[in-house]
Design a protein that fits this description.
The protein has about 80 residues and is of the alpha+beta class. It has one domain. It is about 30% helix and about 20% strand. The chain has a three-stranded antiparallel β-sheet, covered by helices on one side. The longest helix has 17 residues. The radius of gyration is 13 Å and the shape is globular. It binds zinc ion (ZN).
Length: about 80
């Protein structure tokens, strides 16, 4: 799959879980050398994991490309709720 296809698959999987009114957790697994660990931007190709409410990994998506928080939020606008409120 191309990164674009992988991202689409990831988004579809989240949408599907949300339709079932389930809590969806997302975990990004960056490489050790990724810039996010030194206060910079992501320049690795993190694995995107979707976890259920018990934090068990349900889906893993490889090769989605860099993680960019801004476009990530836009892709999922209205899709994520801040549960710390
Ligand atoms: Zn990264």
């Amino acid at each position: 799959m191309t990164p674009r296809q992988s991202r689409k698959a990831f988004q579809k999987a989240i949408a599907k879980e949300r339709k079932k009114n389930r809590v969806v957790h997302v975990r990004l697994e960056h490489d050790d050398w990724c810039g996010v660990f030194s206060g910079s931007e992501c320049h690795c190709n993190p694995v995107r994991c979707i976890l259920d409410q018990d934090l068990k990994v349900k889906h893993k998506f490889y090769n989605c490309g860099f993680y960019d928080g801004v476009s990530f939020a836009a892709e999922h606008e209205g899709g994520f709720k801040d549960d710390t409120r």
